[in-house]
Each structure stands twice: as C-alpha cells, then as structure tokens.
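=== Structure Prediction Worksheet ===
Name of assembly: unnamed complex
Input type: mixed (protein and possibly other molecules)
Chain count: three
Listed entries:
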Amino acid sequence: MAQPTYYDLVYAVTREIPKGRVTTYGAIADFLALGSARMVGWALNKSFSQDKVPAQRVVNRKGELSGRNHFPTPTMMQELLKAEGVEVQDNRVVDFEQRFWHPEALGEAWGIF
DNA sequence: TGTTTGACCACGG
DNA sequence: GCCGTGGCCAAAC
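=== Predicted Assembly ===
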C-alpha cells in the first residue's frame, strides 16, 4: 500500500465536494499547497483505483470537463453532473462561477486555521 | 539516469 | 474568445 501522499488529500477533498457543486484543479492545488495543478490531475487519474471519488465534480479553470475522456464513457461525466443538478452544455458547467465550491470551506472543517 | 508525457494554470498577443 | 509559451512536480518509458 502506498504511503500517504498528496493525492490522498486530493481524494479526501474531492469526496467532500457538496453535491451539485464543482471545483477546479487549481483551487485544490492551492488549498493543499501542492504548487502545481497537474498533481491534482495525476491524482484524479489514479482516483479510479480508489473507492467512490466524484472526479466529475473536478473540472479545469474553464469549467470544462477535461477528464471526461478518462471516464468509462465520455458522456458519463456529464450525466453524473446532470443527475446532481449541474447543467452541462458543450462539455462546460453552466454558471460555473456560481457552482464553484471553495476548498477553503474544508479548511475550517479540518481545523487548519 | 534522462527524456517525455500528463484530467493544468497564468500570462501575453 | 483562442493560440503560444513557461512553469510546476510526479510517474512512466
């Protein structure tokens, strides 16, 4: 079993994303102080090896479902978000800024401050 | 061991 | 709005 790594934190944050909300790689990277949003992408890629990680709630800064191509089916990511009440058009989250979830909300829950 | 790739982001044109 | 470039760190070849 792998040692505790930065992507374990990414999984934790991703699982704590409220239903109907989305966040970005950069937000998670900044919150965890990873230094690079690419780490989050790598972590999410490996997330399929983990249990129940709502990777569909994590999108790039443009609100685009950049990871849909990595899902079992490209449409699955969109359907999952749609089922959660997140409208998706042209592979982008509608009202993305409004749907954006700030990871710092967990900062208080985790007692980081 | 070194190079390439990767579900990215910020900046400039 | 899109395209190109630099940076960032880690894993795969």
